[in-house]
Design brief:
Number of helices: 11
Strand content: 25-35%
Oligomer: single chain
Order of helices and strands: EEEHEEHEHHHEHEHEEHEHEEHEH
Structural class: alpha/beta
């Protein structure tokens, strides 16, 4: 059974339809990326899944439960983290988490266990006694993620959790999400940071104007071609010769000192290409992905039209 199933979902605000027959499934135990430009319908879909909004057509199931007719049961198995969540800044981190654990109906002993577990998983121990108002954006997002875990949900729905975070905070948040997945939980993750999604998601769905334009693994959506940009101290001709006869590799010159190397393999082939270039004495000084496969696929599949 899928953790999330959306069937022919529709929602309109007055005369404007923002979700137009959307269907997709999120397998159990996966991190599933939810991708789209502003206005594509991501947050509206998420609000339907979180039982905060009733669709005007179709249905959404979480853990096999209907988000409308079984909303109370859905809330018991769902952890929802909205974008720009508001909380009482006058409480400490531990006090705020204890309050929300009580909202979930947990008794004193169960609350302590739930709060301690969430603080430990999200690395909040050193700041548990700090007032929320003094937290950095990264720590605040960790705290809000901890809040979603208090009822031990089977499914987490996270709307732009990495928005406005610095690189270190994004990396730390990503590591926490991977650990949560290892616990057997399912995560639907909305984000505009496509390179981040590509690193942790098992699959993604791409939306535009309330419709699904692609869904599946990143490899399925983007194809199998990857690109490496290689920069050299001197001319790149020596490196180009070293790679000229490698099966499945296409070498393009960007300029005299830079090559764009396209290949259809994985990390092992990428490492082999770098090894050949280095052994050829080419003076390699930098290697980097030309562009994330997910970013490329997104630009190719969407038109950027406003609703």
């Amino acid at each position: 059974m899928s953790a999330i199933r959306v069937d022919a979902l529709r929602h309109a605000y007055e005369d404007r339809e923002v979700i137009a027959g959307l269907s997709f499934e999120v397998p159990d135990g996966t991190i599933y990326g939810f991708v789209g430009a502003n206005g594509a319908g991501k947050t509206t879909t998420i609000r339907v899944l979180a039982t905060l909004l009733e669709p005007t057509g179709g249905r959404a199931l979480v853990g096999g439960l209907d988000s409308v007719s079984e909303a109370r049961e859905v809330r018991q198995i769902l952890g929802y983290m909205p974008d720009q969540a508001r909380v009482d800044d006058r409480l400490t981190v531990a006090e705020l988490l204890d309050f929300y654990a009580a909202v979930h109906g947990l008794g004193p002993a169960a609350r302590r266990r739930a709060v301690d577990a969430a603080i430990d998983l999200c690395g909040l121990g050193p700041i548990a006694g700090r007032l929320v108002i003094g937290l950095s954006k990264g720590m605040r997002q960790r705290m809000l993620l901890a809040r979603t875990l208090l009822n031990d949900p089977k499914v987490l729905v996270l709307d732009e959790p990495a928005s406005d975070l610095d690189p270190r905070a994004r990396i730390e948040l990503r590591e926490i999400l991977v650990e949560i997945r290892a616990m057997g939980k399912t995560i639907l993750l909305s984000s505009h940071i496509l390179s981040e999604l590509e690193q942790i998601c098992d699959a993604v769905a791409i939306l535009e104007r309330g419709k699904l334009v692609a869904a599946g693994s990143v490899a399925t959506i983007a194809g199998t071609t990857r690109s490496l940009r290689m920069r050299f101290l001197g001319r790149a001709s020596q490196a180009a010769e070293a790679l000229a006869f490698v099966h499945g590799v296409v070498v393009e010159r960007v300029d005299e000192r830079t090559l764009l190397v396209r290949h259809a393999g994985g990390d092992a082939l990428a490492a082999e290409l770098v090894r050949r270039v280095v052994e050829a004495g080419s003076g390699l000084v930098a290697v980097e992905p030309e562009k994330s496969d997910l970013e490329r696929a997104f630009m190719e599949l969407t038109r950027g039209e406003l609703q």
